[in-house]
Write a structure and sequence with these properties.
InterPro entries: Acyl_CoA_acyltransferase, GNAT_dom
Pfam families: Acetyltransf_1 (PF00583)
Order of helices and strands: HEEEHEHEHEE
Radius of gyration: 16 Å
CATH class: Alpha Beta
Structural class: alpha/beta
CATH architecture: 3-Layer(aba) Sandwich
Number of domains: 1
Helix content: 25-40%
Strand order of the largest sheet: 1-2-3-4-5
Number of helices: 4
Largest sheet: 5 strands, mixed
Protein name: GNAT family N-acetyltransferase
Keywords: Plasmid
CATH topology: Aminopeptidase
């Protein structure tokens, strides 16, 4: 599921996603509905914000993301926020639920860049040169 999310975001944006679900300051949970894992959510517990929320394509349009955000917001001791940049669907959902958007701090951006740097794996290209998993736009 995480691989599906990362691949789809890489295709959509042309580069590794800044909101990786595995940074040291995040808590990531696989969500289960009816025994099935339709998605995951990564939460920044210090800033009370959602870093990443992902729902598999076959489960979209059934209220799974809304259920996740409402559940997390209920458990949150202060106003929950969504971290920018958001996908168009994330922006619409946040607006519908009245959740503000916050920017990542310079420290978070630095940690994400370090995580992305370690995730870039070079591979040989057909021309014999080395490539990487970062796609050019």
């Amino acid at each position: 599921m995480l691989a599906d999310y990362l691949t789809k975001e890489l295709d959509r944006t042309g580069h590794m996603v800044p909101g990786l679900a595995v940074a040291g300051f995040l808590w990531t949970a696989i969500v289960k509905v009816g025994g099935q894992p339709p998605g995951f959510v990564s939460i920044d517990g210090k800033r009370y914000s959602i870093e990443v929320i992902y729902v598999t394509p076959e489960h979209r349009g059934h209220g799974v993301a809304t259920m996740i955000l409402v559940g997390v917001a209920r458990a949150c001791p202060q106003q929950l926020a969504l971290k920018a940049p958001l996908s168009p669907g994330g922006e619409a959902l946040g607006a519908r639920l009245g959740l503000p958007s916050v920017e990542s701090t310079p420290e978070e951006i630095r940690e994400m860049q370090e995580t992305i740097q370690h995730a870039e794996i070079p591979w040989p290209t057909s021309a014999g040169r080395r490539g990487s998993c970062r796609r050019s736009s």
